[in-house]
Design goal:
mainly beta
Length: 269
C-alpha cells in the first residue's frame, strides 16, 4: 500500500534556532536556518484493538494519512489540520464514497499515541492509536539546523550541520553533507520502531530527487548515515507491515538488521 504524503511543528522534533560558530579559517560561519516546510513526521500506528492501521503525517504543511480497516480492507484517505496537539482530519465524499468520515484526535508525543474519535455516517467511536512497533522509553529529540546562504542568490540556502538535542543538551552533531533547506522527513525507515531522519540533497535547480538517510541506532544512541539508502534515487514508499521500502521498481526488505533486494513487486501483494 503506498503512503501519502505550516502548522506548529508538534511532535518529537521542534526546530530551535541559535547561532553556532563552527567556522574555520577556510569555511564560512554557519547560520541558524529554518526549513521551508519544516520536519514532517510519518507515524505508523495501530488501534488498540488491532482493527485499524493508521499511517499519518504530522507537522507538515497539510496533515494527511491513510486509515485501513483490517477486517474488510476498507481504506480512508484523510487530509486536515493540526493545531497544537489536536488533529482534525476529514475523508471527503467522492464517487466511491458517498459519505464524509471525520477523525479528531489528540497527539501524545512521549508515547507516540493518538487518542481520538472516528465519526462515520452511522456512529461515533473512540479509538486509541498506538505505535505499530512499540518501543519503551523511545527517545525524543529536537533538531537545530545550520547552513549558509549563497552570496549571489539569497534564495539558495544549504544546510551543512544539524545538532541533535535531547533534554536540552547537544548529544550529537551531524555534518559532512550538504542538504536543501526545503524539508526533512522523520520516519522509521528500517522498521525497528525508532524514528530516522531523511534529508533532501538533490540539486535545487533540477529538483533532483536524492536523499540522505540517518538511521537511529538504539545501541549507541546515535544517528548513523546509511550508505545504501543514501545511494538510491527517488522518494521511497514505506510498507511497515512488510518491512519493505520501495524505490520505483526496487524493493528493499529489512531482515535481521540487513537490507535484502526483492523482485518487484509480488512481495507487496
Amino acid at each position: 500500500m503506498k503512503k501519502i504524503i505550516p502548522f506548529v511543528l508538534l511532535f518529537s522534533i521542534l526546530p530551535i534556532h541559535a547561532r553556532t560558530n563552527t567556522a574555520t579559517p577556510n569555511s564560512p560561519i554557519l547560520e541558524p536556518m529554518k526549513l521551508e516546510r519544516g520536519v514532517t513526521v510519518e507515524r505508523d500506528l495501530i488501534s488498540k484493538d488491532g482493527r485499524y492501521l493508521f499511517w499519518v503525517n504530522t507537522g507538515t504543511w497539510r496533515v494527511n494519512g491513510i486509515m485501513l480497516n483490517r477486517a474488510n480492507n476498507h481504506q480512508l484517505n484523510f487530509i486536515g489540520t493540526q493545531k497544537g496537539y489536536n488533529l482534525t482530519l476529514k475523508s471527503p465524499s467522492n464517487a466511491q464514497q458517498a459519505d464524509e468520515f471525520i477523525f479528531t484526535g489528540t497527539l501524545n508525543l512521549p508515547n507516540n499515541r493518538i487518542d481520538g474519535v472516528l465519526t462515520t455516517p452511522n456512529k461515533q467511536q473512540a479509538i486509541t492509536f498506538e505505535p505499530y512497533i512499540p518501543i519503551k522509553n523511545r527517545p525524543q529529540f529536537q533538531f537545530k539546523f545550520f547552513g549558509v546562504t549563497d552570496p549571489n542568490a539569497s534564495y539558495i540556502r544549504t544546510i551543512k550541520q544539524i545538532q541533535v538535542i535531547s533534554q536540552g543538551k547537544v548529544v550529537q552533531t551531524l555534518s559532512g553533507f550538504e542538504a536543501r533547506d526545503y524539508e526533512a522527513i522523520y520516519a522509521d525507515y528500517n522498521f525497528d520502531g525508532y524514528f530516522d531522519l531523511r534529508l533532501d540533497i538533490g540539486e535545487q535547480a533540477t529538483l533532483d530527487s536524492r536523499h540522505q538517510y540517518w538511521l537511529y541506532n538504539p545501541t549507541s544512541g546515535k544517528f548513523v548515515r546509511d550508505e545504501l539508502l543514501s545511494s538510491m534515487t527517488g522518494s521511497p514508499s514505506r510498507y511497515p507491515e512488510k518491512n519493505i521500502l520501495r524505490f520505483n521498481n526496487t524493493l528493499l526488505e529489512m531482515r535481521n538488521g540487513k537490507w535484502y533486494d526483492l523482485p518487484c513487486c509480488a512481495a507487496l501483494n
